[in-house]
Amino acid sequence: MQSLWMLVSAFMFTLMGVFIKLAANEYNTGEIVLYRSLIGVIVLLAFAGVRGQTIRTRHFGSHVKRSTAGVISLGLWFYSLTQLPLSTAMTLNYMSPIWISLLVMATAAMRGSLRTDFRLVAAIFAGFIGVALLLQPTIDSQAWGGGVAGVISGVFSAVAYMQVKALGAAGEPDWRIVFYFSLGGVLLGLGWVAVEGMHALTWRGTGLMLGIGIAALIAQTALTRAFSLGNTLVTANLQYSGVIFATLISMLVWGDWPALAGWIGMLLIVASGMTALRRPSAPA
């Protein structure tokens, strides 16, 4: 099942997060975004050259929509990270599967179709409850701006993933979809560092940036394959596995053990994922 690529994506995004956490004390957010995206662009250009393929596309407008939505989502999420506790910002960002399910249902309704698998929709909502139990978000009354940014970030993320689905259906290869998104990230990063400045790369910093860029490239490619070829709702549900991977790594590396509610949340996330996978439906 192609949706299982989302598990690879979730793990690699978690690994990327570890590298970002290690690099955050030495480099600003703009630098991280720039290097993360630039490494992807360079690797994919080399891949295209070796394979004799081209970055030319007949779907440039769709790539612009996907990249714009993805870059806006990324920028808003980073802003919410500066305004909210990490757990709250992550929870709001993980609302994207809910927005995806609503977009799928709205699209089906506009087409006069009732084929939406409500079992999968219910599993997505159950998985989000698991995320909330695990992360236990809190928000200060003065931080409403960050909260709104986090919610909107999830919406744009959902729009970007739906655009990935459309590009995949149009026959666009996953590497080219990732290339144009990475190119958008380079533009965002350049604008960011123009304001915040840049630091010289050390050997340690170079290693961390390579880790961030390679992990992000693998994660984005796996995510693109999952959404473009798999069932949209199943893939959206499996996004929640990233929270479990992050929790397990936090336990092993930093000794951060979840409370009882967190364990219940992880069980709920696993149960919702198994429910989604048990009886796969036609691609949404």
TrEMBL record:
GO cellular component, one term: membrane
InterPro entries the UniProt entry points to: EamA_dom, EmrE-like
Localization terms from the record: Membrane
Any Pfam family matching the protein: EamA
Domain EamA residues, every copy: 4-135
PANTHER family: ACYL-MALONYL CONDENSING ENZYME-RELATED, SOLUTE CARRIER FAMILY 35 MEMBER G1
Protein name: Membrane protein
Lineage, broadest ranks: Bacteria, Pseudomonadati, Pseudomonadota, Betaproteobacteria, Burkholderiales
